[in-house]
Amino acid sequence: MLIKNALAALPGGHDFIRCDILIKDGKIAQIGSDLSDSEILDVKGKQVFPGVIDPHVHLNDPGFTQREDFYTGTCAAAAGGVTTIIDMPCTSLPPVTTLQNLQAKLREIEPKAIVDFALYGGISGQSFAHCEKNIAELSEFVSGFKTYLISGMDTFHSLDHFQLEKVLKISKKYNRPVLVHAEDISYIQSAQQAGFANSVAGYYKTRPEIAELLAVNSAVALAENTGADLHVVHVSSAAAAQVVANSTVSGETAPHYLHFDLEDFQKIGTPLKVTPPVKQPGNKEKLWQFLAEGKLDFVATDHAPAPAAMKNASIMQAYSGIPGLETSFTYLYNAGFMQKKLGLQRLLQVTSSQAAKKYYLKDKGAIKVGNDADLLIYDQNKNWVVDGAKFYSKGKLTPFQNMKFQGKIDKTLVRGKIVYDEQVGILAQPGSGRFLKPC
Ligand SMILES: [Zn+2]
Predict the structure, then answer these.
(1) Which residues partner with 32 through β-bridges?
(2) Largest CB tally within 10 Å, which of 113, 231, 238, 416?
C-alpha cells in the first residue's frame, strides 16, 4: 500500500514533511515523493504520526473482564491511535507471576487482540518467595517486572524494601527493568486509620504528595544502591518528579496528572479518582516542564477503566482508575504540541519512541524504513468534543468529558493494515494483534 500526500512526523525533523510512504509486507519500505503502488491511500495532507506506544494499561483479562477485556481494550487503543500496548500483570487472574500464568493469559488474550501487545511480569507479596525462578523463566517473554510498594489488590500484594531490593538485583541479571508503584505504605495505612471524612479532601489526606515522595525516595535509593534499572510509574507530583530527574531511574507521567489538580478533583469527583490522586495546584505545570526537558521520560495512560456502577460510589469506595486510551494522544497534541509545551520531536518521543527503546520493542516507535508500518493518521482540521458514552472501552466515565479537541484520529494502521477508521469504526479481526517479546 502507498500512503500518498502525507504530512509525516519523521524522526529528527522540526516540522512535518510532505511525502509518500510505501508499505510492503507490513513494513515501511520507502519514504519519498512521487512513489507508486497498485493500492493507494490518499490522505490529502493529513498529518501522519508513528502509532502511539502506551506502556502502561490494565486490560483486566482474564479475571476482571467486567471492567475491560482484551478486545474492548485493544479497540479503545486502536480508536486512540495506539498501535502497541504493554499490559500490566496484576489486574488479571491469575496474575502474571509465573511462566505458567503468562501462558494461560496468552491463550486467553491472543485471540482477542487487534493491536500489538507486550506483557509485564509481576512480583507480588504472594509470589516473592519464588522470585528467583520466576524472573529467570519470565524474562524472555516480558518487558519488565511490575512491583508495588502499596497495593489495594487482594490478588497482588505489595513488596517491602528488602523484597524490592532483591527483585532489583535479580532483574538486573536478566536485563529487565523493574517498574514500581511508589506510594508509602506506612504513611497511607496510618492515614487511612485516622478516620478522615469520606470526601475528596478526606481521601486526599490519606494519599498526599509526601506519601509519593517518601516512596520514590526509597525506591530510588534501592535502585542506585543495586545499580538496577528502575522505572517509576505514574509520577504525579513535582517533588517526586524532581527526585526521579536527579537520579538514575526513569519515570512516566499520565495525561490526568498533566491536566487536573485537586480543585478539579473536588468538582469532578469519582470520574477523576485515580491512584495516586491528582495533586495540589502548581504541580501539573512543573510536570509539563519536566516532561518537556526530558526529565520525565514518556507518557503512559494507566488505562484502568471500570463500568459506571463501580465509579458511582462514595469517594473512598469508588473504583480507582479511569479510561485513557481514547483521549491520550489527542490530549497531548492539543495541550502539549499546540500549546507549544512540547516540540514535534518531543511529542514523538513521549508518545512512542522512548517507550519502544525502554522496553526493547523491535521495529516500533518511529516512521522509518524497516520499521513496522504502525501509523496514526490525524485529521488536524477536524474538531470534536469528548463523549465517554462513545468509547470502545467499557469505562465510559472520563474526566476529559466535554473537552474540545482540535484534530481527530482519522485512521490507525498496525503493520500496514487499517485497524480503525473514524468513518467506519473497527476494521480489524480479533486475533490480528501480535504478542511482542522483548528483543
Ligand atoms: Zn497502573
Answers:
(1) 20
(2) 113
Phi, psi of 317 (to 5 degrees): -90, -20
Closest CA to 374 of 386, 362, 384: 362
Q: How far apart are CA 54 and CA 299, in angstroms?
A: 8
Q: Let me know: does 238 contact 287? Beta carbons within 8 Å.
A: yes
Q: Which CATH superfamily is domain 2-48+369-426 in?
A: Urease, subunit C, domain 1 (2.30.40.10)
DSSP track, 177-232: -EEEE---HHHHHHHHHTT--SSHHHHHHHS-HHHHHHHHHHHHHHHHHHT--EEE
Helix orientation angle between 161-173 and 209-226, rounded to the nearest 10 degrees: 40
Residue with cell 493518521: 377
Closest alpha carbon to 311 in 393, 392, 193: 393
Provide the grid cell at 411.
485512521
For ligand 1, the distance from its centroid to the CA atom of residue 112, given in whole angstroms, is: 21
pLDDT band per the 50, 70, 90 thresholds, residue 13? confident
Ligand 1: centre distance to CA 234 (Å)? 8
Query: pTM of this prediction?
Result: 0.98
pLDDT tens track for 98-152: 999 999 999 999 999 999 999 999 999 999 999 999 999 999 999 999 999 999 9
- The pLDDT tens digits for 334-371 are 999 999 999 999 999 999 999 999 999 999 999 999 99
CB 305 within 8 A of CB 318: no
The Å distance, Cα 374 to ligand 1 centre, comes to 24
Cα of 369 from ligand 1 centre, angstroms: 33
Indicate the CATH number of 52-358 among 3.90.79.10, 3.30.300.230, 3.40.50.720, 3.20.20.140.
Answer: 3.20.20.140
Domain boundaries, the chain: 2-48+369-426, 52-358
Distance 2 CA to ligand 1 centre (A): 38
If you measure from the C-alpha of residue 104 to the centroid of ligand 1, how many angstroms do you get, rounded to a whole number? 21
Residues 416-433: tens digit of each pLDDT: 999 999 999 999 999 999
Report residue 33 as a C-alpha cell.
Answer: 515523493
Q: Which helix (H) or strand (E) holds 279?
A: none
Q: Which amino acid is at 433?
A: G
User: How far, in Å, is the centroid of ligand 1 from the Cα of 57?
Assistant: 6
Gap between the Cα atoms of 206 and 186, Å rounded: 11
